[in-house]
Specification:
Elements: H1 2-14, H2 16-21, H3 30-47, H4 51-77, H5 79-82, H6 87-108, E1 117-118, E2 121-122
Antiparallel strand pairs: 1-2
Helix pairs in contact: 1-3, 3-4, 4-6
Length: 124
Amino acid sequence: MIFTYLFAGMAHFFKRDFFASLTPPFIPAPHAFAVLTGMLYILLSFLLLFPKTRKGACYGILLLLALGIPFDFYMLYSDSARGEIPRGILLERIPFKVLLIGWAFWHSHPDLPPNNLKAGFPKP
């Protein structure tokens, strides 16, 4: 999970123009917004390293992913934002993001299976 969001954050820097083009017009300074989002993903990925900050980092990732779903719908319905991205890929992106949200939620709760298994048996 750490590398997923570290690479996602770095992509916001290396492909800043691409991510800025996906930003809806009501967001001021789309390039700065792309950089800010990238910085947050990178920060949260590092916070996942430490047990004391892991749960908060997961909740931060949950928030960023949930806030990104309206952007996905904006790209789906805006030809200018979508650019050359096929509509089918955008339709697949929303359920994939829901899976990522579930992954972050599961990771934030160590009491959920299979985290709570020890030698194949549930903890009492």
